[in-house]
Amino acid sequence: MIVPDIEIVTILVIIFFGLPIIWNARKNGLWKSFNFIGLIKTINKSLIIQGVIGLILILLTWLWNSADFKFDSFVAGTTYTYLIVGIFMYLPALGILNLIKLGIKKNLGKQ
Length: 111
Fold this sequence. Notes:
Layout: H1 6-27, H2 36-67, H3 72-110
Helix pairs in contact: 1-2, 1-3, 2-3
């Protein structure tokens, strides 16, 4: 799907993924004492908020398409891009980070 306003869609997708991470990092005090395990925990907690954002975008797109509004390609493009980036880039990267965290915890437990 090619979206006519790809710049705006890209910025919105970055904001939708980034704001929950920044919010949870600030809430967990990750800015004061940064560590890798804390970062992964923060991203894991942010996944819940990002999932809710995805569901809201899907619902909004469904409503926009059923109401046949003028900006349906913009909303649909944002939803499509958000879901594709989330499913094919964000979730696999988060899975790999969690495997690394598991390996680090096992190595620290052996020592």
